[in-house]
Task: inverse folding
């Protein structure tokens, strides 16, 4: 196992350890593990944090997307326009409903879906637009909503990397019909396992989503519609409740680290995507270089861990070969050059200077 001077991420609880320990003890002592008071409390707190009226806890961020689409009646025969640069789970969630993901290329500055490309991808079968707030950078939601409104299309926001992000001062997740969040351990708000949530301002939709996540049950053992089994469990809900109060400070730390990186990397011979909105929450800090593989290897030898998010555009994944996906040249370029520098609230000033100094030296 390689020991890095600056690892990409640290997932062992730190300042939140005592709160997490107390949360775990509370759940174990109560002996209630599914659909109990912890998820009720977390849903209320998380909805408030996101500026939403309702939150629905589910098993994963992938399930969150799929359940929203099902709740909106989107499935077989429908098309959902989404981005080619994201975790493949965004598109796989569409396929879980029977819908077909259609890919519109990205904006080369934001690295999120390009509203003009969305317009060009619309067909008579298009039912929804699924933008991803990638790396914590909000997509251009005003432009996307204008396209959707003109065509009568639903918008579902993938906020899995964008907890507490805003777009032009408005919370992400508040533009479309509903939004999906992931609490995978690496996220800005992470569980100690898998987890996800949906936020929405529509009370009727929220109630339908609660039924779908619980097998379509209208009452115990009475299934009024076909659903799935995808529930955020009590243990993870309690852990997330313990961590949620720390999220604003963690977000501020990420933004401060990003500002330091931008200052220290100015003129370093790599491309640093711009901050297109002050609401960016820096889930990741991506940079681009045609010499990516060489730079990654040199940084690794220098004790600095980096990762690639994402090396293969979703349309080029073998799982998508039967979907006849469109070619997205900007996505191809980015996926061939992008890599992520360490980014988490626990980074020190020394860590940031060490990483930036190594990048400057090796990219020269």
Result:
């Amino acid at each position: 196992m390689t020991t890095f001077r600056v690892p990409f991420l640290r997932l062992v609880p730190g300042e939140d350890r005592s709160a997490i320990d107390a949360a775990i003890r509370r759940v174990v002592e109560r002996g209630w593990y599914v659909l109990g008071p912890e998820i009720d409390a977390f849903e209320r707190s998380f909805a408030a944090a996101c500026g939403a009226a309702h939150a629905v806890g589910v098993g994963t961020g992938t399930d969150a997307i799929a359940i929203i689409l099902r709740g909106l009646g989107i499935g077989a025969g429908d098309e959902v326009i989404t981005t080619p640069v994201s975790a493949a789970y965004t598109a796989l969630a569409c396929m879980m409903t029977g819908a077909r993901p259609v890919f519109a290329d990205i904006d080369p500055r934001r690295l999120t879906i390009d509203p003009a490309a969305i317009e060009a991808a619309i067909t008579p079968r298009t039912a929804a637009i699924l933008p991803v707030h990638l790396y914590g950078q909000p997509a251009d939601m005003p432009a996307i909503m204008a396209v959707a409104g003109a065509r009568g299309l639903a918008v579902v926001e993938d906020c899995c990397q964008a907890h507490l992000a805003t777009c032009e001062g408005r919370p992400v997740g508040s533009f479309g019909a509903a939004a999906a969040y992931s609490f995978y351990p690496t996220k800005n708000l992470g569980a100690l396992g898998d987890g996800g949530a949906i936020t929405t301002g529509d009370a009727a939709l929220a109630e339908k989503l609660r039924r779908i996540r619980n097998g379509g049950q209208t009452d115990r053992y009475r299934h009024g519609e076909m659903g799935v089994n995808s529930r955020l469990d009590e243990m993870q809900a309690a852990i997330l409740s313990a961590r949620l109060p720390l999220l604003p400070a963690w977000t501020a730390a990420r933004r401060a680290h990003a500002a330091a990186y931008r200052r220290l990397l100015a003129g370093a011979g790599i491309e640093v995507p711009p901050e297109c909105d002050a609401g960016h929450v820096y889930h990741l800090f991506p940079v681009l270089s045609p010499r990516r593989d060489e730079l990654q290897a040199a940084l690794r030898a220098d004790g600095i861990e980096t990762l690639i998010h994402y090396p293969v555009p979703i349309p080029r994944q073998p799982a998508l070969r039967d979907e006849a996906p469109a070619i997205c040249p900007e996505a191809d370029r980015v996926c061939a050059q992008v890599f992520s520098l360490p980014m988490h609230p626990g980074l020190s000033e020394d860590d940031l200077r060490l990483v930036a100094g190594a990048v400057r030296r090796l990219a020269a």
Notes: The longest strand covers residues 54-58.
